[in-house]
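User: Could you check the structure of this?
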Amino acid sequence: MKDQQASYPQLRFKGFTDPWEERKLSEIVDIYDGTHQTPIYTDSGVKFVSVENISNLETKKYISQEAYNKEYAKKQAQKGDVLMTRIGDIGTSRVIETEEPLAYYVTLSLLKPKKIESNFLSWLISSPEVQRNIWKRTLHIAFPKKINLGEINQVEVMIPKNKEQQKIGSFFKQLDDTIALHQRKLAKLKELKQGYLQKLFPRNGSKFPQLRFAGFAAAWEERKLGEHAKYRRGSFPQPYGNKEWYDGEGAMPFVQVVDVTNKLTLVENTKQKISKLAQSKSVFVPKGTVVVTLQGSIGRVAITQYDSFVDRTLLIFEDYEKETDERFWAYTIQKKFEIEKLKAPGGTIKTITKEALSSFDVHLPQFKEQAKIGSFFKQLDDTIALHQRKLEKLQELKKGYLQKMFC
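Assistant: Sure, the predicted structure tokens are below.
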């Protein structure tokens, strides 16, 4: 048993003062394994979920009503029951909120509440202490790792009285609904952005985009990338691992492939800093420069948001033959690599040289239209980043409450 002090959570709703009590899961829920049989899928019937469907219990897989009746006669999942992952990604849970029948695979266990509120149970499983207890009972030598039914039954949990369970369960349900709302908004914004990327740039060799801002009608100019842009690789002194090349007083960000995100930005803090001694042997890149990765994750593009030095695994666009909007150019390069990836075997570019990049065909409108498109995507990117930050703050808030509101 836990000591008396540990039976009180750090944070509670007003009016609740009773200590929480320790129970084993088997005392408060009935637990069942999912089917061990490899399912025979049908075009319609009863939805069949597995570990990959745990986030929302949505699936496009079905089994027949006959198979369901035979296999799940004594362990039917009902509204208010909780499904929990027990193989691979262990200890993630979801309350069943639908009346329709639901079949579930061996990767999931069904928890039928007896003396516990459903939403509270789901969040209790997510709490740090219960996650640790699940981890202790997990068979880590198995691949994938798993927790057996008997071990789930023995997992220790701390629970309050029913009214406090309901209050906590309702609170986290509202918080999770808010997070889901922000996730949907963010997904819609990203989808909207992809749509505009398709329509605001010419497709299939055309010189005219499908969608344009008012006042622009001229054909876009087709050029070879090497004719329009001046570029060079970054650099770094050798041998690469020499300690005197890194950190120290006056050290600055040193950008490598790993520091380029998929959001047209660099990470906030580069993995390594280049020493003052080594800076003269590298390539300085001022804030606002377009760079693209040429090794590893090839074709990742960023507009640098701080002054830095850059490794040879990246290409730096230093100047242009005509006035060019940097954000428009960044999206042009990004889209060009996406097209080239579609041509590559397996959808992956294995290597790219400066010479091959130089021969890429690019389409360029007049500068004013470039600037208009660049500004539009800048505003859209800023809106997406704002929603991303809000979502991350909500997720951190949820993490903090899980830590403080459970014993």
